[in-house]
Design a protein that fits this description.
Ferritin; single chain; 4% strand; 219 residues; 2 strands
Length: 219
């Protein structure tokens, strides 16, 4: 991917709109995975999660994307969710079903991280460094709202990246994760009192719609 196109994507990086700040743990240049994740979070927070899949698909379609690149993007997302729920076990004053749900989600996300790290290494790649996250919420309702954004963004991001995966084995592995993420999204939606499946299909946006939606964020 050219530096110009990467800069355009980085112009979307406003994750504070989704209630999270991401920093490169190494203190160096932010990774391509971080840039894509920031753009996906911003798109999901501002335009809804239906925006995320076409955004990710367009970003990867720019070229120079390997299966390891896609897996590192997924790994960055799983780092975020894993850290989010690990912190929530200590931070959120949960009761009832939610008190049981948070540790389950944390365990699932940890396993997703381990599986992706192992697959990347098996393919001869290097897992992306785990960023530092700062989650901005102060109550259980705010936590649930943020969780719903993350889960729906995650599902849509996996769906957006899927068509760019070349290996059938890697595609199958990603498919097994996105199904669980969709169940997470439904569980959180029920906790929020929202409809877990408001439509039979996630309606895609075409490239022109994507560009029009993200135009305000492109430097």
């Amino acid at each position: 991917m050219s530096q110009e196109k990467l800069a355009d994507i980085e112009g979307l990086a406003h994750p504070e709109l989704a209630g999270v700040t991401i920093e490169d743990e190494s203190g160096g240049d932010i990774s391509r995975s971080d840039v894509l994740l920031k753009g996906a979070l911003a798109a999901g927070a501002v335009y809804g999660t239906l925006m995320v899949a076409p955004f990710v698909r367009s970003a990867f379609a720019m070229g120079g994307t390997s299966d390891v690149d896609i897996l590192n993007f997924a790994l960055t997302l799983e780092y975020l969710e894993s850290t989010f729920y690990e912190e929530a076990m200590k931070k959120v004053k949960a009761t009832g079903e939610l008190k049981k749900l948070i540790p389950l989600l944390a365990m699932d996300e940890k396993q997703h991280v381990e599986a992706l790290e192992g697959t990347i290494k098996k393919l001869g790649g290097k897992p992306v460094a785990k960023p530092k996250f700062d989650f901005e919420y102060n109550s259980t309702p705010e936590f649930l709202k943020l969780a719903e954004t993350f889960e729906n963004t995650g599902v849509s991001a996996y769906n957006g990246a899927g068509p760019a995966i070349k290996s059938k084995e890697v595609l199958g592995a990603a498919g097994s994760i996105v199904q669980v993420e969709a169940r997470h999204a439904a569980a959180i939606a029920l906790q929020n009192g929202t409809e877990p499946a408001p439509s039979a299909f996630d309606a895609p946006l075409d490239e022109k719609q994507v560009l029009k939606a993200v135009e305000p964020f492109i430097a």
